[in-house]
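Need residues for this backbone.
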């Protein structure tokens, strides 16, 4: 656990596997913890550095958004968090890495924002959406697209060996966004 006096080095922290042998997110020690974390791909290349009021939830969100990039992580929990301390650690880790990881650069939206299903519409789905005459029918079309994309996400997770079940926010599906609840 960090204090303002000592900023932890990224590579001094334990590298944890993202998934347990049972296919669950390996975060039992992080539930409800505030902290900063770094996510690595299968070649242990840094992909993203972030901080959160609940590291456990954030790790799941990133896995949903980028399943092929989430193979391990390093984490530092903070007893007395401050945005300044978290930003200082984040900056130290990014500097220590030598390059900006994709999730903190050009691919930041894919790591930090809900999955937007609208750009993933098929031509038939886009046609049905555009032809829908009222908001209720448009919402129904978007929800169908969201369900299809959600199924694809779950297939990608299963291919990674994820066995944990996830619940997506139904209200956001109506807006064409996929985010865990």
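Answer:
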């Amino acid at each position: 656990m960090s204090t303002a006096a000592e900023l932890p080095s990224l590579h001094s922290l334990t590298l944890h596997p993202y998934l347990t042998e049972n296919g669950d997110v390996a975060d039992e020690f992080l539930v409800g913890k505030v902290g900063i974390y770094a996510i690595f791909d299968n070649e242990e290349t840094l992909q993203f550095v972030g901080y959160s009021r609940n590291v456990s939830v954030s790790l799941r969100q990133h896995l949903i958004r980028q399943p092929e990039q989430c193979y391990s992580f390093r984490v530092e929990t903070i007893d007395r968090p401050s945005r300044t301390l978290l930003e200082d650690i984040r900056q130290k880790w990014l500097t220590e890495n030598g390059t900006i990881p994709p999730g903190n650069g050009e691919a930041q939206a894919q790591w930090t924002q809900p999955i937007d299903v609208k750009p993933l519409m098929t031509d038939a789905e886009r046609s049905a959406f555009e032809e829908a005459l009222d908001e209720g029918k448009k919402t129904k079309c978007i929800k169908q697209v969201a369900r299809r994309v959600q199924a694809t996400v779950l297939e990608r997770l299963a291919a990674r060996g994820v066995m944990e079940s996830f619940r997506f926010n139904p209200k956001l599906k109506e807006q064409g966004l996929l985010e865990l609840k």
